[in-house]
Amino acid sequence: MSLQNPARYLDRASPPHISTLILLAGVAALTMNIFLPSLPNMAEHFETDYRIMQLSVAIYLGFSAGLQIIIGPISDKIGRRPVILWGLALFILATLGCLFAPNITVFLIFRMSQAVIATSMVLSRAIVRDIYPTDKAASMIGYVTMGMSVVPMVGPAVGGLLQDSFGWQASFWMLLIGGVALFLISLRDLGETKSNSGNSLLAQFREYPELLTSPRFWGYTMSSAFSAGAFFAYLGGASFVGTTLFDMSPSSLGIFFSAPAVGYFFGNFIAGRYSQRFSIHAMIIWGSLICASGVSIILILFALGYENQYIFFGFVTCVGLGNGMSIPNATSGALSVRPHLAGTASGLSSAMMIGIGAALSALAGALLTPGSGAYPLLWLMVISASLGIVSIFIVIWRTRKIAD
Fold first, then answer.
1. Residue 336 has what pLDDT?
2. Alpha-carbon gap, residue 162 to 185, rounded angstroms
3. What distances in angstroms separate CA 78 from CA 25, 121, 195, 259, 339, one per listed residue?
4. I need a labelling partner for 395 at 20 to 30 A (CA). Which of 161, 206, 282, 333 fits?
């Protein structure tokens, strides 16, 4: 399916409408963070320690990473549409399980199962690459993720208000309603954009080495993964910092928690607007530098004694801004190394990003104590963002070597 057949909303004979792709990615992002302001209350409800409750972030990310390794090849084989629809159906069932879980063990099992919504996030980007050329794809991925960022931008704020008004279950009821609505929209609007590869599923998986032996694929992927790693570390530790160090209420924390998403929105706008005008390498470099610089400023100000929620959440906006500029371009670069393996590349690249994110999220939760302050989290974020800068320079070096 190509742009020769323009998108018509709720007509699966045409390419999916841009709003459908935004919603597919948006619900996946919302699932990750809407309930975060409720974590302390959920720990009380399930009579468990906060560190155990925080695993609901890490195991979700870890299982999501594992799923994305197989999502791409399967979608390259049988198409994007059936994989997305099955993923949404299973997500709805998992959300019901979270709502009615009798104890923390059952909740964590169903929370892990909610990660199947990763099919929507991964394949919405692959669909963009199916119907657009490389440079245009970088811009369109930027626009898709810009629209997507509106959802998680308000997610923690809404989650905090729902917590104060109705309790932690309200966030999961909202996810359930969103999942059902998105399934019905996708059923009508999501036209297939990927023709059958002609390979068996086993043959599809055997093409992984073609990506794994590409230094440029690794460079783009690691640049994206380490830049995003700063944000995932934030996800794992910001609730602790806000509630324990700054004594913030769930509703107040929810509003402040959205700071990176605000930056991400504007970063995506810049990526969508200027990726075709400037090289994707330039956009990735500037985005990575902004991400690392924002966290470095927080570290410096905290070391000087200026420790408060306004500095922490204010400058962490730079993490979102930098990621919004770098991740769409790095993703487009990774998907374009082997265009015929766009779905596989999207899944593998995203799996690596989420896998690193899960590790950093869990590590942030484990290192933070009332006595440590926010410093372990901030150092994790700085190191991760700096590795993202190193990765894109390796890509540039490799690209020039190939050209020579």
1. 75
2. 25
3. 20, 18, 8, 39, 17
4. 206
> Alpha helices, DSSP H only, in 304-374?
309-315, 317-336, 342-367
Query: How far from chain centre, in Å, is Cα 240?
Result: 21
Burial 334-359 (b: 16+ CB within 10 A, else e): bbbbbeebbbbbbbbbbbbbbbbbbb
Q: CA-to-CA distance for 374 and 368, rounded, in angstroms?
A: 7
Which residue shows structure tokens 């996946």?
28
pLDDT in tens, 350-359: 778 877 877 8
For 300-359, write each residue's pLDDT tens digit: 999 998 889 999 999 999 998 998 888 888 887 887 777 667 667 777 777 788 778 778
Within the chain, how many helices (H) and strands (E) appear?
A: 18, 0
Question: Buried (b) or exposed (e) across 257-280, using 16+ Cβ within 10 A?
Answer: bbbbbbbbbbbbbbbbebbeeeeb
Mean pLDDT estimate for the chain:
82
Which carries the bigger pLDDT value, residue 404 or residue 108? 108
- Per DSSP, the three-state class of 79 is coil
Flag whether pLDDT at 3 surpasses 60.
no
Locate 195 and state its tokens: 């023709």
Neighbours of 212 (CB within 10 A): 10
Q: Positive or negative, the Cα torsion across 376, 377, 378, 381?
A: positive
Cα dihedral sign for 368, 372, 373, 377? negative
Rg (CA), the chain: 20
E strand residue ranges, 47-178: none
